């Protein structure tokens, strides 16, 4: 029982302590104001009724106001009061019209940390000719405050509206009537989603900072219609997808850091005075590398006549506006700023625009295909490769012949080369669409699904092609080496298992950059050139070394094949020997074409690049996929068997029936055993075939 009594007494003591502390937080009425439980007023009358000493008070600070509204004429006709701050008042929900009225000495108004404040009625700020700083921050306002009746006459007006997350729109004419002089607007961290047309009508903006409005997606093209300026525009950390196409002619400094959605720039003609840009993507700086002052001078000459002034010196030291990075509240103090402003002249020079971040070595300032001849060659290579491999697949897959090991391998090779041919086709198509404006398409392309698909396709195709060529070599070597051992002959199921492993490896190699091991977005041609992390570097080196190992396997196998062919003691079929010689030349040609690519790629992976990305495009776009162009012709289309397959296919379509039948007959004659009876009289069979051929030609010729 005693313990319970002690516990109760302790709680009462703590409660009284809290109440005493809370009493220090309650509203304290300034001496020049008149306060009751329901209202308070700070007017000329209450100021005169106060003591003589207190009438000289020039700073009013009101915290924890217990009222729900600030009524009309609350602050009216006060003399010598230059600063009013209302903060930390959770009860206030509304400022009535003329709440701040006819305060001719007032210079600063601060409304901070009022989370339940929802409305500032029209005309709440009226007739404040000396007001030069208005700050409305961290409130619950649901709409942009009305500033149309301030009528400030100060030479520089600073407006700060920040952290009002429920304000979603800057409406038309939002600042009309605020002031006709220079204005610095710091509108940061709000809930803005849109800036509507004519929003800044009637203003003269020196700087406009929209930094940190993370929901801001649109600034209407006519938002700056009727406004002068701004000279500095900061849209960092916003969700903008584009800048307005109009009204940016006077912008000299553009800041758009951490604006990932801003992937395109407005027409450069709309940025004729731009001198400095701090952007998110390096590719955007490429837009200004060729944009010199002479272009901007021509644009101005068309509108303003002959401008011949040149500027040889910068602005005077010690003057200017505070930078956007300096404007952070509540540390902001009006005395920290120099409110002198520059009457800048239009300066035209040949100096390039200062822009950051600058393009790196992986993304130089050029089109996707930087050279005209490379563009032409890429289209020719891509189209020929796709058509050739499609023809091979169509003929082999529609053939009625039994699927042999060779046919199966040729189908896999044709499919890999078809995918490789699609890659330069995608690159060429994107280059055609983004020509001369790749800086506006670079980010969308390199970070989008198109580049990822192109990179996946080319890595998968190249690895599958190299793997298939290696299996073809091993199959030829095994067949020739064990020509007399039919029990050692490779069956289709054996080769299918090998190719299944190859498909799995190729898919894995192409998928790893998608999963974060290296990246296809590093360069514009979408190859995994990212070696920033140890895992990425190991991945690139592993792929290149495996390709080099495949080349060594091919070299060893064909060395042994030639040794077998030249050895008279080994019995080999003449067709195997002929095929081995032909495939040796073809595969060595393929790998010699890839050798310089592998050499330069390995040196780059070891962080010792020997050529630039611009020069590497010639190898990677022109020579890299050229194998996919050559393989279908040299392996398949130019062979006698393929021509027979084509004629047999046309036969099923009702064309070339006699010629196809003749080729089939001649093929049967060639395959007859030498000890057969017909082999002793080959001329009779060939004569019969020739007779049938001539008869078909005469019958099919018909009357003229």
From TrEMBL:
GO terms for biological process: adenylate cyclase-activating G protein-coupled receptor signaling pathway; hormone-mediated signaling pathway; male gonad development; ovarian follicle development; ovulation cycle process; phospholipase C-activating G protein-coupled receptor signaling pathway. SUPFAM superfamilies: Family A G protein-coupled receptor-like (SSF81321), L domain-like (SSF52058). The chain crosses the membrane at residues 377-397, 409-430, 453-474, 495-518, 538-563, 584-606, 618-638. The keyword Cell membrane applies. It is a multi-pass membrane protein. PROSITE patterns: G_PROTEIN_RECEP_F1_1 (PS00237), G_PROTEIN_RECEP_F1_2 (PS50262). It is found in: Basolateral cell membrane; Cell membrane. Its main location: membrane. Keywords: Cell membrane, Disulfide bond, G-protein coupled receptor, Leucine-rich repeat, Membrane, Receptor, Repeat, Signal, Transducer, Transmembrane, Transmembrane helix. InterPro entries: GPCR_Rhodpsn, GPCR_Rhodpsn_7TM, Gphrmn_rcpt_fam, LRR_5, LRR_dom_sf, TSH_rcpt. Receptor for the thyroid-stimulating hormone (TSH) or thyrotropin. Also acts as a receptor for the heterodimeric glycoprotein hormone (GPHA2:GPHB5) or thyrostimulin. The activity of this receptor is mediated by G proteins which activate adenylate cyclase. Plays a central role in controlling thyroid cell metabolism. Belongs to the G-protein coupled receptor 1 family. FSH/LSH/TSH subfamily. This is Thyrotropin receptor. The lineage of its organism: Eukaryota, Metazoa, Chordata, Craniata, Vertebrata.
